[in-house]
């Protein structure tokens, strides 16, 4: 995958993708590039207005793009269920679990989960499980790609305190939620491998550091103008573009040699910039017992069971 860019994405005509959090940052670019290469793309966005605006911008930037927005709030399982129930596509080839929040002050989802764990992991766990029947019907090249972060290295999932009731630390909560993304991919990959005749592949990606709205969401929420400004400066001088940051997820979704449980990111030796490679990951994200435990807890908390992959 040396030198791989978005122009290397193979033709996606006839395929359908769902991209969560597609109205801004990496999700927007992912959706645009998939659409530019012929896929029909459904933008899962929590704001209908921002979703419709993104669809319009994609059509302007990629004429002929087949995109539509649908409401999806990952902080509310009722909304996740409604999105899956109303999913109209007769097929689904790619699910890109991209939406995310980072280092928020303590908040809870509509269902009472800690917000970062709830949105980044549980919402996507539920969505993937609900869309699984469609993904399993898809042809070769079907993928579930979950966007994690290199910052997962800063914290493992604590099975006794998934919602961080014993003292909330916002960056630790983020790191744990991103470790959960990888553990989820690990266990999903394991179950897909074990199921007979399944072509669906579960992989993950991280963007390095890319200039998006992610960093300013928390300062904005708290009205902390100085912190917001600091994040803007970081984005301007140190981050790579969202176009560059999206390449690992696009490779995981469309690359030719993607295997179960692969994790792509920009090279560490390139200071987390450049074309995607198979990325280093914390050993705890490859732990089978932890993966099974998180899976069981996620099924219990969301009420979504992966019947087709039960073991
Ligand atoms: N940028 C980086 O350097 C970086 C580094 C490592 C990992 N990542 C990961 O990359 C992914 C994309 O983030 P980004 O950098 O592109 O940030 P972004 O520009 O802030 O985009 C995040 C997207 O997620 C959506 N979102 C937030 N809460 C949601 C909810 N409850 N339901 C549905 N959608 C929701 C946002 O919607 P609104 O616009 O409505 O808020 C937005 O569309 C995240 O998973 C993040 O953890 C990013």
Automatic annotation (TrEMBL):
A Pfam family that the UniProt record links to this protein: adh_short
Record flagged with keyword Nucleotide-binding: no
UniProt cross-references to PANTHER family, sorted A to Z: NAD(P)-BINDING ROSSMANN-FOLD SUPERFAMILY PROTEIN, RETINOL DEHYDROGENASE
NCBIfam families assigned to the protein according to its UniProt record, in alphabetical order: PRK06197.1
Recorded GO MF terms: oxidoreductase activity
UniProt keywords, alphabetically: Oxidoreductase
Organism of provenance: Streptomyces iranensis
Name recorded for this polypeptide: NAD(P)-dependent dehydrogenase (Short-subunit alcohol dehydrogenase family)
Similarity remark: Belongs to the short-chain dehydrogenases/reductases (SDR) family.
């Amino acid at each position: 995958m040396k030198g791989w860019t978005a122009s290397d994405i193979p033709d996606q005509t006839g395929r359908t993708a769902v991209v969560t959090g597609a109205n801004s940052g990496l999700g927007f670019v992912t959706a645009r590039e998939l659409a530019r290469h012929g896929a029909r793309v459904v933008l899962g966005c929590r704001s209908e207005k921002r979703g419709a605006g993104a669809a319009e911008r994609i059509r302007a930037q990629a004429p002929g793009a087949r995109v539509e927005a649908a409401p999806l709030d990952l902080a509310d399982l009722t909304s996740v269920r409604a999105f899956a129930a109303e999913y109209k596509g007769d097929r689904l080839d790619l699910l890109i679990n991209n939406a995310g929040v980072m280092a928020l002050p303590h908040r809870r989802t509509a269902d009472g989960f800690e917000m970062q764990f709830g949105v980044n992991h549980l919402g996507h766990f539920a969505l993937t499980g609900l869309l699984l029947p469609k993904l399993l019907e898809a042809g070769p090249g079907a993928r579930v790609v979950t966007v994690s972060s290199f910052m997962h290295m800063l914290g493992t999932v604590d099975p006794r305190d998934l919602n961080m009731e014993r003292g909330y630390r916002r960056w630790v909560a983020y790191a744990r939620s991103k470790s959960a993304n990888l553990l989820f991919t690990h266990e999903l990959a394991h179950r897909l491998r074990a199921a007979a005749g399944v072509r669906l592949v579960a992989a993950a990606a991280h963007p390095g550091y890319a200039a998006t709205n992610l960093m300013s969401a928390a300062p904005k929420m708290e009205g902390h103008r100085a912190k917001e400004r600091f994040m803007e400066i970081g984005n301007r001088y140190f981050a790579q573009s969202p176009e560059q940051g999206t390449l690992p997820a696009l490779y995981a979704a469309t690359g030719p040699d993607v295997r179960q449980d692969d994790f792509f990111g920009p090279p560490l030796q390139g200071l987390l910039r450049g074309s995607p490679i198979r990325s280093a990951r914390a050993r705890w994200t490859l732990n089978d017992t932890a993966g099974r435990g998180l899976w069981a807890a996620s099924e219990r908390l969301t009420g979504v069971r992966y019947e087709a992959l039960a073991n």
